[in-house]
Amino acid sequence: MMKRFLLLLSLLAGVQMLPARTIGGRVVAEADTVPVDGAQCTLTAGDRQLAAMESVSGGQFRLSTPENGSMVLTVIKDGFDPTDIIIDSAQETIDLGIVWLTSGTTLLDEVTVEGSMEFDAKGRTIIFPGSADVKASESTLSLFQKLPLAGLSADPINRSISVMGSSPVVIINGVPSTLNELLLLQPKNIEKIEYSIIPPARYAAKGQTGYISVTLKKRDDGGQVAVWGRTAFTTTFVDGSIDASYHQGPSKFQISATTSWRNYQDVLDHAEESYIGTDGYCLDLNTQSRSPFNYFNLPVALKYTYAPKPTTVFSAAFNFNHYSDHRRSYGHTDDFLDDDYDFNNENRSKDLGNSLDLYYRQDFNSRHTLEAEMVGTLSNSRYDRTNTYDYLSGRTEDFTTDIHSDRRSLITDVSYTYNVSQQSELAAGLTNTLPHSSNRYMLTDYNPTLTENNNNLYVQYSLMFSRLYVGLRTGAQFNWLRNDDARRHYIRNLSSLQLQWTPAQTFTLSASANYSSGIPGLSAITDYEQQITPYLISNGNPDLKTSHNVYAALQPAVRYRKLTVSGLVSFSKVINGVFSDVSYLGDGMFLSRSVNSKKNDTWRGRLQVQMSDLAGFGFNATVQYSHYATAVETWDMSLASWSALLNLWYNYRNFTFSYYHKFPGKYLYAQTVGRDENGNALQVSYRPDRHWTFSLSWMYMFDGHGTKYPSWTYSSVNPSWRDRNIRENANMVCLSINYTADFGTIFRTARRTLNNSDSGSAILKL
Prior knowledge:
5 helices; 2 domains; six-stranded antiparallel beta sheet; 22-stranded antiparallel β-barrel; globular; Maltoporin, Chain A; 5% helix; mainly beta; 50 strands
């Protein structure tokens, strides 16, 4: 007993003798270099608060803690943006020197005042954006350009974010959101970003790739207004957005809207194509045309959220979307077999949609969570197409289509999560989708109805072994489809395996494999012939088979201080994918029809290097190699291609200079080889204060052709070469203005992980 007592005394003495770490410095405003007194300085490790104090005279602060691991110093003061300092040094006394509010980073010895990259227990990459990257970013899109996320592409010209070429799942503060909502965020408000190329199980049936979850900083404001607009000086190139929110107690009210308007008149098309029949028939065409187009898009969202406590949340969202599109093509075709002709083709489409989204979440305790969501959608679409051909011989031909479509759907989603232990989690859920579409072909008696009953049942189990994460998901989809009197049903499997090994915080190796299957779209199986040109008929194919998709990826990542190097090697195989194929009917007529592919394989290798804040300078460079292979019963093709992206930026006081350049590569789809859209942009941004940002951009520099879209089709029946140039984009100068204002008190945010919507269409547009 005495030995145990002495041992206990020695242990207590040892604990008392552990040296305390001291972190100190001075808080100074960047704008006028005046010391900031009364700033709240808080030292945390994970969810634990280690020490806290307010800066005293001269902005001085000094905190002590026995903690010797990684920690974060947060400095908050009214009228300034919060500043987070990640401290990785184990030394006993750390003098940070000057901690600037609303400005760059501070680096002393091994103390890093910048963003960090980590890897969590669910196999996801965790990014804490650094203040230098935030300062260099006028928007969230600009911030994502600078982050070392393998497989992610951010395009500042088209304002889009994609993961492996597809739209990702977006989560904001635990609530499923749209890409528009992500782009509306202000970079200064983002605390953490979680990223993965594999979405959670409940999203597998939607065919989305990639997962982006954003956690916002706790704000001393309960409301925010953010307004952004961009316009070109000489071209109808207009984008805008507004987002306003206000909360009181457990309630939050939010309204947001975005808009895009394009009106291009100087669009030049040149095409050379042939139609070759098996009986010796050969039609050669050379077409020169102008193809003006315009479109307008306006999605509006009204959302109410009620969260009386962190374990309970209810939300109701009403969404309205208006989209209209008008496209023309007029010119002359040299017909080397028959009669030359002038043509005038005109397409108009309009889509209106309304939806109501009701969501409820309840955490019963630390282990059990239940979510339920119901989404009702009403939409209608109209598509008009008129193709007119005036031959030199004097005859005229018209081909007209007028389609009206009404669609309604109900989506019901229930999800349950059980935390088995701190190292393991079990999740299961069921989603039912009931869409109904009625199409009216106004010039005929053909009025088909399309009805579906889709059910997705899944289960997912994840386990953490020390530094190895294992996630296994499987499920089944049951789909019933009725097209008038024709009935079809599908049973599909959805499975995936995800592994991640993290031997150190500076290195991680991830591997994933995913299997899914997909049914053809409603428009692809609609059995209705439409004559498009004097020699071409288009039709759907009710005999299309279910596709089978296999995807595997290996993703290493290494980081050292401000340098991050990541790679991605992936393989995708689609069996029974859907291609459009042209065949000869005889008598000079050809049929364009959807068919199942025999092979559709894609190999990719990607290397990404990112450097942040080297004396105000940073860059993100990506190089990618792609190999495609496609085939159907009658042909087989392959293609190898290189592409690259480069982002450069430099911060100087209130100015940010940035340059974006896209080196487009080629792609292969069916028998068509195309080149990706070209693009470059030089931008200067100025922030006079924390509310305003002004940016001037020069896009498609030194390129008189503007945006270019070349493609080649290597078909034995319908070979062609096409080129489109949007000349109005050449040397385009844009001005963008961003304004934000904050007010109010803190709102309690609850987590939401279900998100459903229906934007399907049964109209086949040609």
